[in-house]
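ZP: hey, is the S-adenosylmethionine complex queued? I don't see it on the tracker
AM: it wasn't, my bad. submitting now with these inputs:
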Amino acid sequence: MSTVVDQLRAAGCVFAEAEAELLLAAAGTPAELAAMVRRRVEGRPLEQILGWAGFAGLRVAVRPGVFVPRRRTEQLVREAAALAPAAPVVVLDLCCGTGALGLALVSALPAGQRVELHAADIDPVAVDCARHNLAPAGGHVYQGDLYEPLPPGLRGRVDILLANAPYVPTGAIATLPPEARDHEHRAALDGGPDGLDVLRRVLAGAATWLRPGGHVLVETSREQAPVALDAAAGHGLRPRLVTADELDATVVIATRPGAPGEGITARPGRLPRASGPYRSDRTDQEDA
Ligand SMILES: C[S@@+](CC[C@H](N)C(=O)[O-])C[C@H]1O[C@@H](n2cnc3c(N)ncnc32)[C@H](O)[C@@H]1O
């Protein structure tokens, strides 16, 4: 244990003890442990070495190159859980990566609640990973550009649309930590000149897929939030902003207007507060 901790600490891992414990638990043999430590020392994200990430109290499988779900995104899921209707709920997770957001939302709903879960991503490796993660929840995962691969029958039926799309401005990619820059696919990070290219397209299409009174929730940075709020309003949605200082999270929630009195019954969020030192030493999108 102490040798592994020393190696990790020398490589700059802030939570060397916690990481060493996870690696020791995961390795089957000393040779396997040595290989895992070597990959970590070389800069690969711990989650890609372990093959899983902790997210909202769940273990989510992670494949090489696929975006590792960040703790700050748990706020988006918490807000979504509070907005989900008590009736059967239709959830769409766009830009799903591992599928962590949809999976966490389904897990936060009351046991026995009927859920129809759809997810999509442009990256085939992410789609494969999400299919694995969402199979137990009966999730349907599609590959393609945003709304393009979705079944037409989903139009106008979505209660909750989750999207943690890439939002790092192109010019800031070079400033990301190597763990992200070198080990997560560029398409998972790069949001175009101001970081909002994909997000604007998510908001532009949301009203078509949401049911009246349904909600779209997107993560942004604080600096981007005013532009994202304007974009949502410009596409006929009613936007509002939620921030959570402890997670450094910024979420835009926008609602498709519905008939008066049709609003979704709100329920307090039931998402557990997740912990895990292996995540908190990572900087990510908003730190760029
Ligand atoms: C920041 S990652 C977030 C992944 C996941 N939602 C999460 O929070 O862990 C953004 C994801 O969007 C996907 N993506 C980027 N552009 C896309 C597009 N035009 N259509 C669908 N997915 C896209 C990337 O492949 C990546 O998996």
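AM: back. The CA atoms of residues 169 and 195 lie 4 Å apart.
ZP: great, adding it to the tracker
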